[in-house]
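User: I'm putting together a teaching handout on how multi-component assemblies are represented. Below are the sequence lines for each component of a complex, exactly as they appear in our records. Could you produce the 3D structure of the whole assembly as structure tokens, so the students can see both representations side by side? Please keep the chain order the same as the input.
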Amino acid sequence: MKNGKFFVLLFSAAIILGFPKLTFANSEYVLPYPSFMPGNFLYQPRQLISKINYYLYFGDFGKFDYFLKESDHHLVEAKTLFEYKQYFLGVNALEKSNNYFKQISIQLVKAKKNKKNTSEKEIILKKASEKHIEILTKLKEELPEHFRWTPEKSPPTEINFRQLIDTSIIIRKGL
Amino acid sequence: MRVLFPLYALFLTIFVVFSYLFIDQNLFYLKNLYTGFAYQNRGIVSVAYLLSILIFFAFYYLFLKKINNKELFKLIAVSSLILIFSYPAMLSFDILNYIATAKVLFFYQENPYIIMPIEFVDDPLLLFTRAANKVALYGPIWVISSGIPYLLGLKNFVLTLFNFKVFVTFFYLGNVYLLQKYTKDPKATALFTLSPLVLIETFVSSHNDVVMMFFGLLSITLLMKNKWKLAIFFLLLSVLIKYSTIFLIPVFLYYFLLRSKGKTVDWEKIFLFSYISMLVIFILSVFREEIYPWYGIWFLIFLPFLRRYKFILYFSILISFLLLLRYLPYMYLGNYFGAAPIMREALTFVPLLFFLIIYKIKLSKN
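Assistant: Of course. Below is the structure of the complete assembly, with chains in the same order as your input.
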């Protein structure tokens, strides 16, 4: 073999790269970054991925993760849309987030029935609830109490933000 | 050989007993066998381990010098039947991860690519499983097929542990069959099948690398028979066990290129490319985490076809030895930090660089 140089280079690289690397983690509950918003051409593919994920996240804990992830995602989407005064789309996203959030505790009940210790998941859910409520409380301060949405060629719709956000908070408080 | 056989069997038996000195304190299923010796006498066990590796390689050298078919199969039988009873987490804890992952899927019925074993806070496996904070690391074919040894374990941990060993052994034997069939040379087959690295990583630590490489080798042998559809299928199976054999794809492309041009295929060249390709991914594994000793199996499987390349032969045997030395720093220091990683890299690469330099000087002199 006349590939001595090649091997020397390969192993020199291995020595240099082989030394340990440090990584750090943050344990605080963090909401995701806003993803693709309605109107973006990647919004529908993202919805499709979410539907596929529903089946990949099987099991009680898997579904717990799935519903929490989706609830987080739609809450962030709603917040972003409200900030850009896309109220109608924002309401849709918040309602989706609420529906997903309602499912989370149902998964914990199922997990308990299957004799799984849910104590850690309950802590995560509590932290998530607190974070969601924090966001919702801010939104409550920033948004108008009522809004009349008049789409083209359709009758107007009255949006009661106060009621919607109060309901969302109640869902998160598990009341 | 007559004298060697009983000596080898005796040595393996002692090595099996030695492996039980490493039982984890938290592995309560084997608490009756726990002594704590390896953790209280790190210096002694490190020297004993080094000696064992040297003896292993001495036997390997003697076997390679003079071995026939009958002796090869006898040695394989002796090695597997004795070493299979060793304590599997002596050098690596991966078998415990295999069990934990299988349990997530088959017992808890959760997706192991999403849910980590550590999320089942009451599970007794957490007491001694080292990578419980990771989702499944291996391909779906491995995760699904690990259901066989797991379910046959009937929820008995020790039975499950040894089922995994038996499961991996079947694929080792598959490799023996393929190598002997295509090399028709017991000395060539012995290069892989009796390699101390292969024996330790397969029968002691029960790594799934022999499973992945069985399907990888099978796919190439199917190419030899011109059954390329089946070959692609088995390559895919191999990739879906541990992903690394994705590096055999260029070899397949080279084969198809030759075929499309109507050229005859030089199979020795194909095995040489396979060896080099798997060596490249072996080296590249430092980007992911680090080079683990059992990764050597990825390219060593092709060594029996490349016996006449003296450089590859010496390089492979040397690296097999050096890879087994990578266990020493942790064994001696008891941790993976501080001097341990530096010692680990030095033990492997410094002698290897010396070998490469000496070989280069020798080549230039000739």
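A couple of points students might notice: The CA atoms of residues 40 and 334 of chain B lie 10 Å apart. The interface with chain A takes residues 108-111, 113-115, 119-122, 279-280, 283, 286-287, 290-291, 309, 311-312, 315, 336-337, 341-342, 345, 349, 352-353, 356-357, 359-360, 363 of chain B (CB under 8 Å).
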